[in-house]
Amino acid sequence: MSSCALIDLHVHLDGSIPLPAAAQLAAEAGLNFSLDELQEKMQVPAHCQDLNQYLATFELPLKLMQSEQGIRAVAKAFHKQLDAEGILYAEPRFAPGSLTAEGLSQQEILEAALAGRADFFAENPQSELHTAYILCAMRGTGEELKRKNEQSIDLAVAYLGKGVVAADLAGAEALFATENFSSLFAEAQRKDVPFTIHAGEAAGPESIKAALRLGAQRIGHGVRSLEDVSVIQDLKAANVTLEICPTSNLQTRIFESIERFPLEQLLDAGLTVTINTDNMTASNTTLSHEFELLQQYCGLDKNTARELAENAARAVFSDSSEKDCLLAYLRQ
Predict the structure, then answer these.
(1) What is the reported pTM?
(2) What CATH class has 2-330?
(3) Distance between CA atoms of residues 88 and 80, nearest Å
(4) In angstroms, how far apart are the furthest CA atoms of the chain?
(5) Could you tell me which residue ranges the Adenosine deaminase domain spans (predicted)?
(6) CB burial class (10 A; 0-12, 13-18, 19+) of residue 125?
(7) How confident is the model over 302-315, as pLDDT tens digits?
(8) Where are the alpha helices (DSSP H) in the chain?
(9) Hey, CA dihedral for 312, 315, 138, 50, is it positive or negative?
(10) Is 199 helix (H, G, I), strand (E, B) or coil?
(11) What is the rounded CA–CA span in Å between residue 220 and residue 278?
(12) Which of 91, 201, 243, 290 is catalytic?
């Protein structure tokens, strides 16, 4: 089954800092945490109540990524971890606007992330891993956030095809409605930036409807589409792919147990589904682990696992040659 766990379309860079890398960055910042203490701060508690509590685990990682050196180190360590796990392709995402507290510009932040990626490949020229970044705008209110989000979209425009493949909307979905960001993503569409939107996770199918109206080509999570038949029909008509993240959904209490995760219902509804990690460190997971959970508890078989992996290959935001290579690899 792990041979199908090759493509991760929904993985947050700041939620996936390997703990040893975090320990080193924390020590350099004068924060002396043991690995156990770091694990407690950076991984979701066993009794997480909701998405808002889940998002609290990002507080320390974001502090460690406020310098070019820190961002570069995180990106390099992240790529090293993906490679060690046999990932073939990933689209790591992060919000450059969340990393400006120490005065860095969003362009400097992205350049640091690209440099960290380049550092990994310079040291590992035989790696088969391919990656490209998705830049996240963040949910919230206020003129400063609006300005930052607009800058993030402009940055995605400037670096599209140069290490960036798309934009995203992330953050507290239940608190800040997807519809509120319509003008931002109208601008993304006008500038030909493809995008995914977190929707149908903390908020219900109305959030997915809004994301579709905004023009999202993929939906981050989207599992609550099952609550509205018309949303299912809209997703199918628009050929929009769902980036589902089972462990994360359990931790945010969308589902009470893995046995109740609706993989079969999503597939039976004819939706295009992919399997992803969301946050490898925060959720303490890997892509192989996600597939293994679904195999053990949700009846996932090898043929369906291969179908899900091929869905991911077809849904990458990269160019058609990348898609063709991934599909050919999966069909060997």
Answers:
(1) 0.96
(2) alpha beta
(3) 12
(4) 53
(5) 7-328
(6) exposed
(7) 999 999 999 999 99
(8) 19-28, 35-42, 51-55, 59-64, 68-84, 106-123, 143-159, 182-190, 205-214, 229-238, 246-251, 263-268, 287-298, 302-315, 320-331
(9) negative
(10) strand
(11) 9
(12) 201
